Amino acid sequence: VCLSCTPEKAQVLVPLSERSLIPYPNEIVTHEEGFLIDATTVIYAGTNLESQAVAQGFSNRFRVPSGFILATKNESKLATNSIHFVIDASASEISNDEGYILKTSKDRIIIRARTMVGLHMGVQTLYQLLPDEIENKTLTPDMIWAVPGVTIEDAPSYAYRGAMLDVARHFFSVEDVKRYIDLIASYKINKLHLHLTDDQGWRIEIKSWPKLTEIGSTSAVGGDQGGFYTQAQYRDIVAYAKLHQITIIPEIDMPGHTNAALASYPELNCDGKARDLYTGMKVGFSTLCVDSEITYTFLDDVIRELASLTDGDYIHLGGDESHVTPKEDYNLFLTKAQAIVKKYGKNVMGWEDIQSAGISDETIVQHWTNNDIATKGAKQGASVVLSPAPKTYLDMKYTKDTKIGLTWAGLTPIDSAYIWNPRTLLKDVPSSQIIGIESPLWTETVKDMDAIEYLVFPRLIGHAELGWSREDNLGWDSYLERLKMHINRLDIKEVDYYKSPLLE
Ligand code: TNX
């Protein structure tokens, strides 16, 4: 017996066609021999703390269904039966910071990236190369953890790949938001915009203005239960998102959409009288008092506290549908509000409407309904995030029979949500200024996590592909085929997605 010999490792040949990759990677070369992860596979995480953290994340998640506690070494030896997590800041073959190269062979898996973010993105692809059972939350014995033979070179088309959750019309718990983060992260989404305030509720603790939550958080649409995040809870969300390489973008909508604040503090109203809490679904009836000094004290306090909770560069000022604020007042107000955001070291994001106030080239305008207005924003040098309502508004019904959702921008079945081109939507905006897309979920009709999942999935998965994949890799037929295969993972994760007839 050869004591120093290891037994021949079992070989399993699994073709890539048995796996579904969404978003589709830029370049894939397949070869016959893939890799089999078994109980003796060793992880090499190198000496970089960030690659070690990504390796640890993989190992922890892999352990849940496999039961394997893979040995992890903080070195990089090209041994057989190994998985390598490599960060190499100078890797010139990788085209951007979120890109990665993933290679499998019978001896090893190597994921290389320039940054921790890129490595994380590569790991999301690795999960999709493993059997669906990788998603199981319980031990799954006798699985063959085989990965097809591939060399994948990948990087995103757009830097901003976002989702938005409206926690103001209905409130969602920290647990719900974390589940949402888990779900979207696997599609390489990297921004979560939280719509924290609106007429129907104020959802973030502001220590210097405590009645915002004592009073303003108690309402929600339809008289449903309100709620808010304490600053500690909010920090917890931000940290959790960061672990998934997602940046939280907080929105305080102003000067309209402010009834909850106006109900909390009489002095924010021009007539000095507090408004009643609001539980309806109308928009465009409220405004902060633009002429009074106290309004700007309020703004300064709110933005200062919010900036201190924000690890990203952007604070979203809303600015949409201020129908009862005279235009001049609106522009004056947003000029002052933008200056306060800058003062606290952040940049401004806002709905396309804010461009009328004058914006800078550091601003992001979020297109939602009017191509001309968004284009005017871009002409001032701003970057543009695309959220065209008929394509990306996740609260639009799938069909006229959908039980929840709205219809003002039309019906959005899953093919329609996918079939559009971010590169040509705004004809007069140079492509360099389009930084990405975002899918907003407004929650007037959405009361719980099941309802969120029903409207979001599977449409958001298609948006994630539009934001990530190269133009020549996009196509409804290919996407639909991959989505059909992918649905099993949603079932395993108990996602309450919409069972579109197109998936049959
Ligand atoms: C428009 S989109 C709004 C929201 C509503 C949404 C419902 C935007 C900037 N404003 O206040 O919730 O439609 O679809």
From TrEMBL:
Glycoside hydrolase family 20 catalytic domain: residues covered: 158-470
Cellular component, GO annotation: membrane
Matches recorded under InterPro entries: Beta_hexosaminidase_sua/sub, GH, Glyco_hydro_20_cat, Hex-like_dom2, HEX_bac_N
Every Beta-hexosaminidase bacterial type N-terminal domain range: 20-155
Active-site residues (renumbered): E321
Keywords: Glycosidase, Hydrolase
MF terms in GO: beta-N-acetylhexosaminidase activity
GO biological process entries: carbohydrate metabolic process; glycosaminoglycan metabolic process
EC numbers, comma separated: 3.2.1.52
Superkingdom of the source species: Bacteria
Substrates-to-products reaction catalysed: Hydrolysis of terminal non-reducing N-acetyl-D-hexosamine residues in N-acetyl-beta-D-hexosaminides
Keyword Hydrolase appears in the UniProt entry: yes
Family that this chain belongs to: Belongs to the glycosyl hydrolase 20 family.
Protein name: beta-N-acetylhexosaminidase
Organism encoding this protein: Dokdonia pacifica
